[in-house]
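User: Structure tokens for both sequences below?

Assistant:
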Amino acid sequence: MPPPSSGGFAVLQMLGILERLGIETERPGSLEAVHLFSEAGRLAYADRDRYVADPAFVSVPLAPLLGAGYLAARARLVDRSRSMGRARAGTPPGVPALGAAEALELPSTSHVSIVDAEGDAVAVTASIESAFGNRQMVRGFMLNNELTDFSWLPETEGKPVANRVEARKRPRSSMAPTLVFDAGGRLVLAVGSPGGHSIINYVAKVLIGVLDWGLDVQDAISLPNFGSRNGPTDLERGTPLEELAPALRKMGHDVRMRAETSGLHGIQRAPGGWVGGADPRREGEAVGE
């Protein structure tokens, strides 16, 4: 999903960084996997907060930020034995400096992935931003209150913030509905999730689970959630990941246990057809004929 969503960009950046760190060799749920994934998230969210906004108002430098040389340089910032704490946004050549600021996070988003009998597919994420949107109904639809997805600070560090409020501007989101194709152009996976700013981490987790760790889509969705949005390292409360907290803290992570609001929904190509996966944390399910 392109800007003004930051989802597609940030997921691709995380995958590009983790590819260079060899995430596929780490065991799911291991200390090493959680550390590397969280550090890649810090770097991606730092660039997201600085550069991504409505492309009708700002030039979003996707090509430089996703370039092979830039991603390799960002990956070299990751110390395998120590957390960087808080990442700074990068400065690709030729990209003007901007201020960075975050927006609020409110949980009222939905996602569905569908593949029909003809093989046509869609991954759809939709949001009205908070429960009942702005509390106004028009012709049977609740209007959204997406104004909260803007950054409230118009400038930081003496520089304008890309996602500042402006008339007729679309706010930045984190939605990341994703279709994955093989080298021959054949669809192999459709996935996405609600979950506010954490959508990026949720979708990246499933992509790595399926593509790098060889899990089926349901097992990848059911993995405990973890990662960083360039702040604390979040571990899903009530899961085996809690046992990693002491070791992560020794590595410099500011660990936070919390309930996760993912609602991942995915469909994966399998021999003879398709298999689906739905997040056990919500009420969704996978169905088909």
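Moving on to the next sequence.
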Amino acid sequence: MLTALAALFGYLIGWVLEGQITDTVAMVSYTGLVAAAVMASASVIWSGVSLAFGSRMVLAMADAKPIEKADAPQLFNVVEEMSLAAGVPMPRVMVMEVDALNAFATGTSTSNAAIVVTRGLLDTLNREELQGVIGHEMGHIANLDTRYMTIVGVTVGLIALVASMILRTLQWAAIAAAGAAAIARARAVRRS
């Protein structure tokens, strides 16, 4: 559905551009069809890239480091309990060395999932609170929410990027048009 939304957005962009260039509004726009195909292709390609490498990119951006059971035995114990209860393989356990209280799950399948917690969360929560947080993150892994969120993020990001490029282009075009009009007025004043 999101790829169809991206294609529709591309079609509308092409349709408007064709109308601006030709001063006619066709019901079916060739430029719109090309733009729709480009947006749909970009959506599929970026979704594929994010499915293949998204988890690694997220973990690298978060600067999450894998830890051993000896580093945080209570955390490992809780993750093992929750993975058994959810019926999913044990995800990788990682820590971000920040004081904020946060946790997240990533991975496009239960076999490559990871749960990341911050050092602040580990230092602040007791076992029951930690179970609640890990249970929540394990729910994202078991329901494959992390895969869906990855694809949604990429496709919505693509649409936002294209919209931003169009907005900036229109702003620069307006500035250029205003500058050209000012130059034309100055030349007209000099001639008279």
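User: Anything stand out in the second?

Assistant: The helical segments are 2-22, 30-62, 73-86, 119-124, 127-142, 145-191.
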